[in-house]
Amino acid sequence: MPDTIMLQVTRYRPESEGAPTVQEYEVPLREEWAVLDGLNYVKDHLDGTLSFRWSCRMGICGSCGMTVNGDPALSCGTFLTDHAPGPVRVEPLANFPVIRDLVVEIDDFLLKLPEVKPWLVRDDDGVDGVEFLQTPEQLDAYKQYSMCINCMLCYSACPVYGIEPDFLGPAAIALAQRYNLDSRDQGAHQRLDVLATDAGVWACTYVGECTRACPKGVDPAGAIQRYKLTAAARTLLPWGKR
Amino acid sequence: MAGPGRTARPSRAEAAAWLMFSAGGMVSALLVPVLVLLFGVLFPLGVLAPPDHAGLAALLAHPLVRILLLGLCVLALLHWAHRFRYTLVDGLQLGRMRGPISALCYAAVLAGSVWAAVVLLG
Amino acid sequence: MTRVGATRVGATRVGATQPSTTRYRQPVSLFWWTKRRSYLVFVLRELSSVAVAWFVVHFLLLVTAVHDGPAAYRAFLDWSATPLVLVVDLVALAFVVLHAVTWFTLAPKAIVVRMQGRPVPPRAVAAGHFGAWVVVSAIVAWVLVVML
Asked: Domain named 4Fe-4S ferredoxin-type: which ranges (chain A) (predicted)?
């Protein structure tokens, strides 16, 4: 195995340039190193001006999403040896505006997420002192959708989101389903108002790339498809479920 | 929040369009391949003997067959309209023309359905 | 609620006048669907709807010919055998088969079927659909080839 590998990293410095450029860095090729380790090596030893997000280094915080060799990926979970001998292209997450270097603006998602009310909604108020019981079968109904770490690789993979920024997006809809399908939740009718819109589930054409990109196996595409039938029924038969 | 012509409320139109698209997708997936194989390829080429005229005409005269075929044609067209308008808008990034594109597609469905009714039921 | 960072393609000023806040909006190519094999397969799947519409046209022309008498029916079959129409129908056949295969494969995702309180595994749902496809096709073929 060669000693080093070349990283071709997107640089964008808005104070001095109008468009991104590419800068090459040669980093050690260690068997256990991920792309994130390579970037940290660059920052520590080669070029302290490189900016990128990261935190947990273990695929749970969702901070380090980037485009690695054309695919949306968590830089902490993508190993350099898998891309040897390189070079490895490291670009910011697609479909998001770039703030600087590999840092993208995720405000759009952060504004959309609370719109789907990703918390337990109850019709009764004040449930102090009550323990909600849930069987393992009831947990299984939504558990997969609760695995989302908000890394937004799915938004990056989704061509509809790239063309249509109003689209609510895979993660937001999957998270809405996580609560819709939770036996303790009573908010499905409230979420319907956001989900069953033109920019909600109906904008999705089931490309399925979101599910491919998801590092936690959430299957947002499946969540959206399941909801389409619910949305259609509840929209066209309003006397039933409201 | 919503782009031009997009509702910020639940859309009954899209819900109905999707239901028709799904129904059309299912019936066309089940029936169209074998019909294209037979009437589009094997019968014209003579690989299999095509049904004789009298028999086929009698089949097409059966009221149940006529209704089912009309249903197939209308649903297949509704399937096409929904999928095709999204393909044009997303594939060619024609978001601003979403309204006219949808209108044209469903106008074609209406025209095709009328033609189907005239041919199959007339 | 204001949307922060709304941008056009290329560098655009946002909020403050400082150049350091200018966001770069990564452009989406007109040929985005050629960039990945999975995108291309997706677009081909979507275009299969045109083949379905073509079937309707071809079929209505066939029925019209049948209603016009044996000679017209024969002429229609001969026209269907001409090279151009044959190629169109062969391409259409490929597309409608693509439509059927992708439709039945993805069907389990749209509906979660429960039997006796347990969810039916997706593979079984898909297999059921494919089985129905075989049965329906066999019945249609039998009616048109054997019975008539």
From this structure: 139-168
Q: Extract the tokens encoding A59.
A: 């695929």
Q: C55–B51: do the CB atoms touch at under 8 Å? A: no
- Whether A225 sits inside 8 A of C106 (CB atoms) is yes
Provide the percentage of residues in chain C whose pLDDT is more than 90.
63
Number of domains, chain C: 1
Q: Is there a domain that residue C80 lies in?
A: yes
pLDDT for position A28 = 96
**C138 in a domain, yes or no?**
no
Distance from CA of C130 to the nearest CA of A (A): 20
Identify the chains in contact with C, defined as 3+ C-beta pairs within 8 A.
A, B
How open is the CA angle A186-A189-A190, to the nearest 5 degrees?
Answer: 90
Domain segments of chain A as ranges = 4-104, 107-235
Spatial contact of A105 and A150, defined as CB atoms under 8 Å apart: no
We report the CATH number of the domain holding residue C74 as 1.20.1300.10
The class of domain A107-235 in CATH terms is mainly alpha
State the complex-level ipTM. 0.92
DSSP three-state, residue B9: coil
Q: What is the pLDDT of residues C83-116, one digit of tens each?
A: 999 999 999 999 999 999 999 999 888 887 777 7
For residue C6, the model assigns a pLDDT of 41
User: For the CA atoms of B83, B6, C26, A56, what is the dihedral angle to 10 degrees?
Assistant: -90
Q: Per residue, what are the HEC states of C35-59?
A: CCHHHHHHHHHHHHHHHHHHHHHHH
Residues C109 and C122: beta-carbon distance below 8 Å: yes
CB B15 within 8 A of CB A201: no
Q: Which domain holds residue C106?
A: 34-110+119-124
pLDDT tens, residue by residue, A127-173: 667 778 899 999 999 999 999 999 999 999 999 999 999 999 999 99
Say if B106 is an interface residue toward chain C (CB within 8 Å).
Answer: no
Does C89 reside within a domain?
yes
**Which residue is it, tokens 């249509």?**
A164
A175's tokens: 């998270």
Contact with chain A for residue C22, Cβ under 8 A: yes
Question: Averaged in consecutive runs of 10 residues, what is the pLDDT profile of chain A (242 residues)?
Answer: 93 93 96 97 97 97 96 97 94 96 96 95 73 90 96 97 95 97 93 95 96 96 94 83 46
Ranges in chain C, pLDDT < 70: 1-20, 148
DSSP string across A39-99: HHHIIIII-TT------SSSSSS---EEEETTEEEETTSSBGGGGTT--EEEEPPTTS-EE
Phi, psi dihedral angles at A99 (to 5 degrees): -85, -50
Q: Which of B7, B19, B93 sits opposite A232 (nearest CB)?
A: B19
Task: Give the domain A4-104 fold.
Answer: Ubiquitin-like (UB roll) (3.10.20)
Q: With respect to residue C16, please indicate whether it lies within any of the assigned structural domains.
A: no
